[in-house]
């Protein structure tokens, strides 16, 4: 499965293009199957239909757990580092993890969860989160993990969209110096959900919580009364493994569906190759399991490859800005995979937070989630990687299941800010606005992928048409990523950012329409327009232009109230950084908001607004310019 040299990469890449089915069949054979597949691939991008390893039967947990028991049952699978550095870290071997997953799977079964049922998981970064995810997979239930920073309303929308029958949560969560309620938030969500029959509550903070008889159950109590044997449910390769909600350019987040076989193979193959994982290495991905990065590179990829994976409960700045480096030193971490926003933030605290810690265990570094600027790239490489660790800038998406364009650590020659070259099996193309492929090097355009790979999105839950429309209709015959991209003279790819109305704030994906909808729900708001602007640490900040019914008496207070509404409707991650009250928005005669102008103003580019003659009321632009923040 592992490529070892650049020549091998080139050969593998060529083979994956010449004979994709042969290529992926060979990799597929290295996993544990109950029944072999009948057909490696069938696909039709016009209908958004893709199937990999059809007819094959397997269970991802047999690959992530059972398969390792004989050879490395006593090897540590997970290292859990709690929020408070003075609390003890916990190491969980493959054997113990297997036991805990089987037990919890039996708890799920006991409470009526069956293959195909949807289970919502809303937990902090505790080992139980991984256990819950794998327990669902064990019995063929579909997990839908919701990031702990989302509001009750966001949870309710996600539960209702996929009609979840169970929620798994905790009493509270520790995050830095805060204690955050979890069960209480779930309770509020459940007032709006009729499909949920039971709630399992894990104890973390021992915050007082309401426990309803007949619905709510304690995790610790439940696992006492079940068996530790739970045979894995045989799954068709194309059965759904999980749903993960993500933002698009419309208001409603969509449930990206991934299936068992292809996702497993793609997450594992990319993990092994991009990070060049060597047996015994400690892999630390700082993402939250509530996002795709955590699914693929904390849980499934590392565990299916028999790696040791670190789960960190806290935040990089608690108790101080040296926390990540302290964890690296403490657990002798070899691979550190994090986001540019974290790097930029930690950079700003100064090097003395780095100097106290021994980082000599590090062998490889990775970056994900947003474009990485050269300064952050160099800082990470030099000060954290001691200039000798390869640094992989990995481009991919919730919809792609795993890494698509990235160097292979230590193999692909690096170039700062470039995701470099596609992995074997990935065929990127750049297209112009008319959908025409732009060939050759030294060009830029919209990034599409013209051939399926095993981890590709299969559908958006409950609405296949939406999947077709969003990803396969802009450029017929191709998967459209939503990203702009440059291919330089060497054929290296650099992702320049979203070309649609999706923002990337601190590596979190947020739709402008989602934020606008939330703002518009606030009393006294008539209309709003949201754009992203360059932000030194977050990558992008949120700038909201808001029309109100009347001039607010206390504008500052009104701003704060609006932030409270956005927090309540979506979650604190979607709060605008800047709010400007305006009397009108720049609209065309047909009523379309010209976001281009608002974006320019938010970037401070007042004199370069382009053609404004088609605006209904050009005077409004002058007013907005004057009041710009
Ligand atoms: C952006 C996260 C530049 C991109 C795995 C993409 C990146 C979106 C990179 C997906 C990178 C991710 N360089 N941009 N290395 N990685 N992106 O679904 O805009 O949360 O479309 O998946 O993040 O975000 P998502």
TrEMBL record:
It is an enzyme of class 6 (ligase). CDD domains: ACS. Residues 9-64 form the Acetyl-coenzyme A synthetase N-terminal domain. Residues 514-592 form the AMP-binding enzyme C-terminal domain. One of its GO terms (molecular function) is acetate-CoA ligase activity. It comes from the Bacteria. Residues 66-452 form the AMP-dependent synthetase/ligase domain. Keywords: Acetylation, ATP-binding, Ligase, Nucleotide-binding. Pfam families: ACAS_N (PF16177), AMP-binding (PF00501), AMP-binding_C (PF13193). InterPro entries: Ac_CoA_lig (IPR011904), ACAS_N (IPR032387), AMP-bd_C (IPR025110), AMP-bd_C_sf (IPR045851), AMP-binding_CS (IPR020845), AMP-dep_synth/lig_dom (IPR000873), ANL_N_sf (IPR042099). The keyword ATP-binding applies. Its EC number is 6.2.1.1. GO terms for biological process: acetyl-CoA biosynthetic process from acetate. Belongs to the ATP-dependent AMP-binding enzyme family. This is Acetate--CoA ligase. It comes from Dyadobacter luteus. The gene is acs.
């Amino acid at each position: 499965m592992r490529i070892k040299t650049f020549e091998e990469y080139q050969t593998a890449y060529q083979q994956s293009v010449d004979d994709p089915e042969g290529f992926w069949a060979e990799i597929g054979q290295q996993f544990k199957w109950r029944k072999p597949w009948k057909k490696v691939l069938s696909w039709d991008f016009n209908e958004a239909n893709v199937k990999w390893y059809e007819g094959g039967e397997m269970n991802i947990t047999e690959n992530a757990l059972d398969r390792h028991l004989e050879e490395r049952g006593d090897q540590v699978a997970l290292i859990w580092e709690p929020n408070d550095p003075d609390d003890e870290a916990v190491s969980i071997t493959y054997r113990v993890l297997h036991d805990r997953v089987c037990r919890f799977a039996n708890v799920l079964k006991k409470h009526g969860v069956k293959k195909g049922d949807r289970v919502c998981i809303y937990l902090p970064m505790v080992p139980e989160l991984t256990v819950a995810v794998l327990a669902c997979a064990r019995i063929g239930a579909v997990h839908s993990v919701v990031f702990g920073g989302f509001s009750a309303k966001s949870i309710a929308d996600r539960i209702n969209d996929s009609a979840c029958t169970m929620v798994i949560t905790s009493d509270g969560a520790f995050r830095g110096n805060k204690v955050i309620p979890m069960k209480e938030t779930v309770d509020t969500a459940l007032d709006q959900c009729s499909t949920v029959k039971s709630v399992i509550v894990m104890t973390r903070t021992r915050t007082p919580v309401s426990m309803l008889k007949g619905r709510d159950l304690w995790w610790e109590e439940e696992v006492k009364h079940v068996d530790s044997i739970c045979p894995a449910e045989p799954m068709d390769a194309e059965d759904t493994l999980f749903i993960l909600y993500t933002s698009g350019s419309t208001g409603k987040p969509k449930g990206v569906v991934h299936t068992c076989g292809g996702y497993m193979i793609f997450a594992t193959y990319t993990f092994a190759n991009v990070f060049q994982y060597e047996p015994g290495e400690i892999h630390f991905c700082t993402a939250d399991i509530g996002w795709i990065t955590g699914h693929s590179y904390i849980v499934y990829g590392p565990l299916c490859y028999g790696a040791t994976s670190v789960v960190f409960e806290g935040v990089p700045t608690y108790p101080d800005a040296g926390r990540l480096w302290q964890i690296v030193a403490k657990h002798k971490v070899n691979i550190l995979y994090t986001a540019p926003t974290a790097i930029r933030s930690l950079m700003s605290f100064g090097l003395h937070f780095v100097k106290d810690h021994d980082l000599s265990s590090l062998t490889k570094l990775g970056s994900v989630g947003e474009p990485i600027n050269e300064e952050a790239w160099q800082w990470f490489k030099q000060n954290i990687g001691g200039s000798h660790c390869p640094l992989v800038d990995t481009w991919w998406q919730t919809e792609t299941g795993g890494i698509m364009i990235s160097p292979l650590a230590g193999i692909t020659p690096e170039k700062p800010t470039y995701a470099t070259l596609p992995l074997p099996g990935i065929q990127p193309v750049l297209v112009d606005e008319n959908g025409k492929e732009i060939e050759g090097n030294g060009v830029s355009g919209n990034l599409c992928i013209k051939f399926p790979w095993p981890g590709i999105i299969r559908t958006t839950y409950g609405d296949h048409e939406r999947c077709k429309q969003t990803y396969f209709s802009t450029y017929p015959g191709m998967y459209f990523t939503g990203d702009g991209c440059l291919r330089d003279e060497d054929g290296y790819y650099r992702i320049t950012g979203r070309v649609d109305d999706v923002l990337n704030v601190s590596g979190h994906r947020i739709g402008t329409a989602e934020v606008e909808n939330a703002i518009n729900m606030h009393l006294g708001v008539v209309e709003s327009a949201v754009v992203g602007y360059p932000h030194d640490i977050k990558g992008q900040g949120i700038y909201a232009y808001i029309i109100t019914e009347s001039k607010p008496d206390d504008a500052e207070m009104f701003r704060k109230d609006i932030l409270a509404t956005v927090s309540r409707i979506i979650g604190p991650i979607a709060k605008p950084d800047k709010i400007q009250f305006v009397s009108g928005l720049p609209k065309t005669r047909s009523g379309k908001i010209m976001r281009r102008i608002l974006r320019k103003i938010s970037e401070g580019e007042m004199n370069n607004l382009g053609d404004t003659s088609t605006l209904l009321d050009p005077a409004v632009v002058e007013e907005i310019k004057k009041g710009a923040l």
